[in-house]
Amino acid sequence: MRRSYKFLLRPTVGQAIALTACLNDHRALYNAALEHRRTAYAKAGVSVRYGEQSADLKHIRAADAGGQGRWSFSSQQATLRRLDRAFAAFFARLKAGRTPGFPRFKGTGRFDTVEWPRDGDGCRWDSQPEHPSAAYVRLQGVGHVRVHRHRPVRGVVKTISVKREGFRWHVIVSCDAVPAEALPATGAAVGIDLRVASLVATSHGGLLDNPRYLAASADRIASAQRALARRKRGSTRRRKQVARIAALHAKVRRRRLDGAHKAALALVGGYDVIVCEDLRITNMTRRAASRPDGEGGYLPSGAAAKSGLNRSILDAGWGVFLTILSHKAESAGRELIAVNPANTSRTCACCGHCAKENRRTQAEFACTACGHSAHADVNAAINILRAGLALREAAEAA
Q1: Of 101, 183, 324, 343, which sees the most CB atoms within 10 A?
Q2: Are 115 and 139 in contact (CB under 8 A)?
Q3: Cα separation of 162 and 78, whole Å?
Q4: What's the rounded Cα separation, in Å, for the pair 39 and 216?
Q5: How far is the CA of 33 from the CAs of 52, 133, 185, in angstroms?
Q6: Residue pLDDT, tens place only, 2-44
Q7: Coil, helix or strand for 347?
Q8: What sections of the protein cross the membrane (predicted)?
């Protein structure tokens, strides 16, 4: 299986300056290649492809030996492939009839990653294996950068990427042939229902806490945003304040990711079969549509309440949690089943009666047919588990 490892870099001051220059030169290459494609099509109706732009790299590097010529040829090819993928995605959306977003030029804060497509070609993971206590990665034009390697890297290293997040630098190592670490069988199965008040309700009645990391940091972020509004555009103080805000959001993201890993690990460690809902979170968090009232105004749409619900769903990190859960389940040899979420919260787990009136409040479920009462999300988790086991039995019978 394939796995990526993300580690914090500990560059010196000189190395941090070199990493910033590397990032800026790759961004300039990306923007120049995009301008080349736009101009060629606008002036001559010619579509420029990746192969032609990759062939031009030789001349670009020779003409700018102290700039573009400093960096790895392969990493620059990866940047051109990134632009090519952006155009491929644009034309795919256009063909599918969706509203396409044309590839845009990248500003300073919109280009934060450089990739080296092959270990040993312009980069080298664990470049000083003889060092007794520290790990290093060697990057062409930067040198041997110290890595805070907090866990071992398994498998065969394929690609290496460097990413800037606020004031920090990270290295992402992607490996193939990572051995699976199957956990001992437990013989247990569980259904889970994702919530806002708590992150997960299980079919066994358990609730996993939702720490609401964004809400906990909302005051500090709001204060930083107000300070940003007072900064003059283009000033050094404004750039530093933008980086501070990015660092606050990065901390929220790291805490949410850590919480999702711990919650997923608890489920994977305790159950052989985990059944969840096949949620379309992007659709669930769309803003409420406005409806004209025919008199020049709009009918009440509940946009404010919907906005608050969307914020709570995104703060809970359902998508991050489900992604991590699927990866951990695959690595541990567990079975993850996704079921249709329709009516799972309205159906009685005791008698099967389905009605909107069964769910009286967010947390209270009381069946209008048989009188069964339970926590609404635990009742939904039981229904999810049954639906998943039914799908599993049908697949085995086929």
Answers
A1: 324
A2: no
A3: 13
A4: 48
A5: 10, 42, 53
A6: 899 999 999 999 999 999 999 999 999 999 999 999 999 999 9
A7: strand
A8: none
End-to-end CA distance of the chain: 27
Query: Residues near 147 by Cβ (< 8 Å), separated by ≥ 6?
Result: 7, 8, 9, 10, 134, 135, 136, 137, 171
> What is residue 360's DSSP assignment?
-
Provide the pLDDT for residue 387: 94
Judge whether 195 and 183 are in contact, CB under 8 Å.
no
Query: Which residues, in sequence order, are CB contacts of 36 under 8 Å at separation 6+?
Result: 48, 53
Specify whether the CB–CB gap between 133 and 117 falls below 8 A.
no
- The sheet carrying 198-202 orders its strands as 207-209, 198-202, 189-194, 273-277, 335-339
Q: Are 10 and 143 in contact (CB under 8 A)?
A: no
Q: In 67-213, at which residue ranges do the beta strands (DSSP E only) sit?
A: 113-116, 123-125, 135-139, 143-148, 156-165, 168-176, 189-194, 198-202, 207-209
Amino acid at 271: Y
Cβ neighbours of residue 74 under 8 Å, at least 6 residues apart?
116, 117, 118, 121, 122
Phi/psi-derived region of residue 143, left when phi > 0, alpha when psi is between -120 and 50, beta in every other case: left
- The predicted pLDDT at position 85 comes to 97
Q: DSSP of 53-109, one letter per residue?
A: HHHHHHHHHHHTTTTGGGS-HHHHHHHHHHHHHHHHHHHHHHHTTS---------GG
The CA distances from residue 187 to 270, 271, 385, in Å, are 9, 7, 14
How do residues 325-357 score in pLDDT, each as one tens digit? 999 999 899 999 999 999 999 999 999 999 989
Q: Is the pLDDT of residue 86 over 90?
A: yes
d(CA 89, CA 106): 17
State the average pLDDT over residues 316-322: 93
